[in-house]
Amino acid sequence: MSEIWIESKTLAGRYMVSSLGRAKRMAHVSTGVSGVTKSYPERLIQRAKSQDYPRIILKVNGKAKAYLVHRLVAEMFLPNPDSLPCINHKDGDKSNPHPENLEWCTHQENMAHAAATGLSDCAVPVQSSKQGSGMWFPSLESACRHTGVSKPCICAAAKKKQKTAGGMEWGYAAPGVVFDDLLGEVAA
Of the candidates 152, 132, 45, which has an alpha carbon nearest to the alpha carbon of residue 140? Predict the structure, then answer.
């Protein structure tokens, strides 16, 4: 697929976004408050380092802001006639912002796709333990609801980024284990 560049109207008309997820500042001339005129050449924008979704930092109206690359690509290349709020990566790869890999969706559709493809911990059985006794939950949502501990705190503890959340130690069931299997194990 060849790279297609489109000028972004939402980015003050100073940037272009490509179908490969790249961005560039367009050549322009700007006059500052002091009346000094300065020329800016066309320049490719480097992606910001991130462990999450790839981002680029762009300056619009004098203010720097981080933009999600996949959102810029979707806004430029994918029609959104139903004004859906989320963008789903069909292949589950956050670093693949090609238009044919993206689709507009609802938040629920996005979460369902993440759970179905194993990209989210929301549908994974969760365990907690406190002073020798433990509990199993069929999902992260269920654990939050029953314990009152927030999802980010449970995730951080389950991923061992912190020791406890809500006074409990947390973990995830092994991959492939479903809640029904855990209930059978408890009953045995």
Answer: 152
